Amino acid sequence: MRIVAKTISPFCFMLAAGAFAAPPASAQSAGTTFFVTSTGIGNGGNLGGLAGADNHCQTLAQAAGAGAKTWHAYLSTQAANGSPAVNARDRIGKGPWQNSKGEVIAKDVTELHGTNNINKQTSLNEKGEPINGYGDQPNRHDILTGSQPDGTAFAGSDDRTCKNWTSSTQGAAMVGHSDINGPATVPTVKSWNSAHSSRGPDGGCSQKDLISTGGDGLLYCFAAN
Predict the structure, then answer these.
(1) Which of 72, 113, 138, 204 has fewest C-beta within 10 Å?
(2) The pLDDT of residue 22 is above 50
């Protein structure tokens, strides 16, 4: 009797190996404690107040597998209508904070507002992706903060928070540069949280205005616990 040997194609070996391969792990999503939002809320500076901004951070974190933590947006509000100012630095916990790759961006609030590790390579979104910066098309590096360099709210009557994150027309928002880069004509170009104010034909706080100056209504999100 003649025995015929059958060959098994490499493709079959690949299928067999794949059956026993472990599923790919998310990019350390469970350990992520800092990210830049991949998308904005889409209504310019009207975020629905601090609560709306925090919910946006929480929703994106949940989708990325890091929803077990309490997430807050890095935003300040100004004193208005009898309500005191709120400082962004007081809303984000004590640290340390790391991105989805495990890179520590700051060990505590003092380092965050001093010599931190925020730059284009470390300012990743909740999916572990970089944010378009200066020189990219489109540029999306303007991150809403409403904050001074030390993370505190602005005093005085000049609006720096789009009416405490409720306006998509009049007002202005202080933004930071997630890539700490930009045109040399901007003295504070390397500030991650207080680079310049928004501006534009619609008043300064519309989605169109934010896009026109190199942003997209994105936020910094920090795990506060």
Answers:
(1) 138
(2) no
